[in-house]
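pipeline/complex-builder :: batch 7 item 3
reading input block
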Amino acid sequence: MMIPSATENVLALLPLHPLISFLLLITFGKRLSWHMAATLSIGAMVLSTVSSFIVINQLSLQSPVLSVDLWNWFELNLTNSSSAKINISFYLDGLSAVMISVVTGIGLLIHIFAAAYMKDDENFTRFMAYMNLFIVAMLILVLADNLVLLYLGWEGVGLCSFLLIGFWYQERANVLAARKAFIVTRVGDTAMAIGLFMLFKELGQLNINDLNESASTLWVVGDEAPYWIALLLLGGAVGKSAQLPLQTWLPDAMAGPTPVSALIHAATMVTAGVYLIARMNGIFLLAPEVMNYVAWLGASTLLLAGVAALAQNDIKRVLAYSTMSQIGYMMLSLGAGAFSAGVFHLMTHAFFKALLFLTAGAIILALHHQQNLFKMGGLLKRLPFETVLFAIGLVCLMALPGSSGFFSKEAIIAQLWSSNTAGPLLWYCAIFGALLTSIYSCRLFFLAFMGERRFDHELQPSSSRLLKLSLIALAVLSLIGGIFANTIEQSLSGVFPSVQSLNMNEPNWLHSVAIATPFVGIVFSWFYFSTYRNSNHGNLNNAAFQDKPTPLVMFCRQGLGFDQLYDLLLVKPYCYLARLNRKDIFDQLIMFSAWYVCICHDVFKSSQTGKLRWYAAAIGLATALLLISLGIESFSLEAS
Amino acid sequence: MSAIPLSHVLILASILFSIGFVGVIVRKNTLFILMSLEVMLNAVGVAFIGAGSAWQQADGQVMFILVLTLAAAEVAVGLALLIQMQRRFKSLDIDLLSKLKG
Amino acid sequence: MNLSTNHLIMGLNPLQLMFYFSAALAIVASLKVITGKNTVHALLYLVVSLLAVAVCFYLMGAPFAAGLEIIVYAGAILVLFVFAIMMFGLGQDETLNAPKSHSFRLSNFNLWVGPSLIAILLLTELIFAIESSLVQEKLTSHIIDAKQVGILLYGPYLLAVEIASFLLLAGLIAGYHFAKPEGISLDQKGLDQQKETGGHL
């Protein structure tokens, strides 16, 4: 059927706007004023957002899929004279549509916020340039029609994450956090690359649609090859999405500026892993054990992050662990086969997590960069605007009825009980996770916003209209996001195959328990954390606010010891080996020949004494040896 | 009248030669080295004379005269160098002359 | 001298006996030369050795060479030695001047063993070479006198004589130049150089 070429061009040019903006910002750098740089970067984002809406509109109107070929990147020659063409081409279906709308829409709002937030930073243009580059890479990732191009986008977002976490590179801690993020995700990327190699070897191509088709024809459920490939792809997803066991980089990544945390580590990059699994659902559905692993990884990360979030004292780290936990939900839903529910949760999570992060950023800015929860308090009265927004975000996080989070989370939990690859046990984990979510959210709210004020200095809330505008937009989206549920469901139904569920008789109380859980959590925290929320003047010096953590709390605060575990298992042996090889054994082998030559040189050098008598003796000795050799020759001649 | 067998003469020359050779190598005093050189040259002369006498030709003695000339010239130059060495180093130890300058 | 074969002492005629005796003397004297401590004593032993070798020459039937040996070698060259030692103070007692750290001991076994071994090795080889059958055959009994030597010198070996005279001239000039005392120069530039460097070689 006829696809208007205009829409194709719009799709093709989608990632181009932020790319041009990136190039201009990098080239002209500090010569641009704040106004120009902000206009350039936000303008590019506006163009991209408008373009994405155009193409999505076209999608729903005419055809379920849009694709445009840009050019041929390279060809991989197979042995039997056929070749796999790797093209730069973009492919738009329901899943990519959801992703690009999230990326460009949330990205635009965060760019607006960042323009106001980072206004006084002297490297403003570099920051906006990197943000734009990130958007380019993310768009390539979600629009890619083959896995090589996806890998390009994958690495691109990893690079931008590194650049942005370590944006204030003069601080050593920031650089170390950036390095840690890069290396940990690299481990996942390597697994993914090996998975790609295996895919190519088995199926001979890397175009995603063709892969999904040929996989289902070539393999049956439970085969060995899809098992390993899916496992390797899972490794890549786990690294990027900060799940167990590669989750250690996300809390440290909070060293970057807050818009970075919002954009990359809440809304977009960490969802790349979820996108990958959703995209490669053809492979994953052929390996139910791996889907089970996915579900269990998601559930364990969910619980682990929830427990860790209960013990944090830094507002951004609570939100980081919360992100980790929510992505665990998405993984859980993907593992259970509820692909569309997981993607929908991705979308709503982007809304309210970005809102939470940005509001936290505004609060931190108002408190002169104070991030410790135990030094905040009573902000309800002092910063009412930010408090309300934060409360909206927390409501969505806790999935209270009516918010967008409610719809997405309930959609996930509803499909867990009778799923093939999940089951009742995972349902209980999900419910417990929801309980933990509500508890740590309430703890966060009480510590920061209620109770007695512990921050005595003057507050400096930002008065920028841009800032407030973006925050309000995000809040609105978080609240009304539930209305998108049907449209999303429709568009995604064409992408994902419907997963059969076991025909178990679900108990009736499943749904009511799921809905009631956050309220139970709220009630529990109301009484448990009552000291936090009381406006009692005499409680200022209470031990509860002194933040003297017990060893257990400390253990949870440090992410349940994973950092220490990896340090012991991986870092220390590697450093030990590096120290052992300090003199570089291969270099020593080469130096051996040099040493040998030096020894020979010394031996020969000792014959050059400069002493006359020595030389005369040498002549005599040489004559004697010569005569001996001649004598031996003549003797042998005579004898013969 | 039987003459001396050539081999005996040559043996004498060899013994004198090796004695001189040992002296050149062992002694540190340059003067003694020169004297040992004289012994060696003398031994060569013995060999030449013996050979000339064995072959009944005068060439041996002619060669001996040339060797003598050589020895004379060599002694003259050698002693002159020795004098310089004595002036410069205040001693005749040949091991002092073991380094090239510069 | 009665050189008849009737008088055989120890199976040798007196000629041969004298030869061996003076050869032994030459060898002993040479040994004393190389192991001497006092320079002048060593020189005198060298003179003795040369005289003994002259006797050997005479007994071998080369009287001219014997005369030359005494007159030129012992009488001129060694006298030159003695004069140089006397006039320039070259003959120190070795024990006074030991620049090396170890003291000068001629009985030092380590000092003598190496060179002696080399010399003995050479000697044995030479003896083996000499003892081969070709050399043994030759026995001679005729005297070669000065006239024959002169004929050769002024005949085939004339060029050698001239070249020998060159050699002597060169030695003369070199000896004069090297033995010059310091401070005496023929040109002004050399004088300045001498003043700067304090003498030149």
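note: Chain C touches chain B through 95 residues (CB under 8 Å).
queue -> next item
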